[in-house]
Every structure is written in structure tokens, then in C-alpha cells.
Amino acid sequence: MFPLNAIDRQFLDAIPSYVFLMDRDMVIHDYNAASAALVNSDRQMVLFERGGDALHCIRSTDHPAGCGHSVRCVSCRLRRAVMAAYDTSAPVRQEARMELRASAGPKVLHCVLTASPITLGSQKLVLLVIEDISELVALRRLLPICMYCKKVRDAEQRWSDVETYLHENLDVLLSHGICPACFETKKAEFLESVSAPP
Fold first, then answer.
1. Residue 11 belongs to what domain range?
2. Distance between CA 4 and CA 187 in Å, rounded?
3. Tell me, what's the pLDDT at 140?
4. Longest dimension (CA), the chain
């Protein structure tokens, strides 16, 4: 293990996301203060443990040897991101869904993983940043909409039309068109209004 100096430690601990220094085999060499809540174990028990074991991944119990040995570990996005960053010496960024063991039952963590290669001293490692986007994913799935006028309610309890909501909250601009079913309905209505006697 390499010792981080006080400035490196301060910098690492200032990052609010979960940050781990790992080798290619997902062995944890260090982690920041925010990650302590995620691993929920004594620091000495976490260091030099594989990521899936320390993070309490539900797949880590599939095989007696733990993280990295289960058939399902082959498709682990976290493992693949770390290995790709290590092997290609290029950063990898992707969304992932992690299933973790918790005292209240399985916990799903939706996250954005960023794995960046880094060399400390003579040791090649990967700096893994896990950004929790579970709240955003939940908001994406649940959007209150009025059953009559189809306006949507935002987090500040304001009602607005869908176009305004999407533009203000997701920076999405919509263009208007007409679907084939509505085109036929509107065309029939128009023809009926034109042919109706005055």
C-alpha cells in the first residue's frame, strides 16, 4: 500500500461521491470519507478487499470465493469499467445498477461510474468514482400528471404543461408534429366542417 499524504487525503475526502482506488482485480487500496457510509465496515477490513465484497454486492455471495468468482460477475458493469480503464489507460464513464445487501433487505443503487487510470508511485491503479443517481432515476419514473389537462407537477408543487416541464427541468426542447391517428381524426373533422352547410 502507498501512503497518501495529508493533502491527497484532504482532496479525496472533500469529494462528496463515493471514491475508491482499486487495482485491476477490484482490490480496494484506499477510499474516501463519503465511501465509509457505503461500505459500512471498519477501514482495516475494507482495505485490500475486493470491491463487491466491501460494497456488499448481492452477487459476491454467489460463490464461496466472493467478488469476481461468480458466473454473474462477468457482466458486472463496475468490474468491467475498472478493467477497461486499467487495460486501455483511458477513462470509462457509464450508468450502472448495483444490487447491494442491506440489513433491511436488498438495496438498489443507480449510479454513474467513472473509472480513470492513475499511477501512484510506481503502482498503476484505477480511481473509481460512484455517483449515486437513485433519486434522479426515481424522479424519472414518477411524474405526477393531471388526469384531465395533462399538466405535470414539479418538485416545487407547481403545475405546468409537459413542454415547459421538460424544457425547464431536463433542458429538452420539443418540436410539434401530428401522429397518423390524430391526422386522420383532424382531417375528418376539417372535411366535415368545410362540407357542412352555412
1. 6-137
2. 71
3. 65
4. 90
